[in-house]
Structure formats: structure tokens, C-alpha cells
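As a next step, the fold was encoded as C-alpha cells, giving this record:
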Amino acid sequence: MKYNNLIAEFLGTLLLLLSVFASGGNALFIGLSLALIIYFSGPSNPGHVNPAISVAMYMKGKLSLQEMVAFVVAQVLGGVSSIYLFRAIA
């Protein structure tokens, strides 16, 4: 398990949800934000930034249970952090 991937998942989820909150649901802005997050997180990171994707990858056999749990925890922490950060900014 690479810790860089967990940090990228945390930050990617945080930034994605911040873009959702800040844009008011503008699909183009959210899509561009997601593309940039995946592009800048690097080729070695899976770029899930969504717990549902991580669970699906586990069910397909692409992730071990330990990796899936670690990704989901990082993503949930990133999501919760984005809520607090957005409230602090707005």
C-alpha cells in the first residue's frame, strides 16, 4: 500500500467536493475539476476519489480488502474535511 495514493485520494476527494460546493452544482466546472485532480494525482494513483468506485474495484478483484478500506477511509476523511473547510471559507 502506497501512502502517496492515500494522500492523493484524501486531497482529491477534498478538492472535488470543494469544487461541487463552490460551483453550486455546475457540471462543467465539476467535470473539469475531476479531470485536473486525476491528471495531477499522477499515473500511479488509481484516482477513484469516490468510495463507490473503490468498493466497485474491490468487488471486481482489482483491490484487496485492506486497500479498499484504506481508500474509503481516506475518501471519507477528505469529504468530511471539505465540509469543514468550505464552512470556514464561506
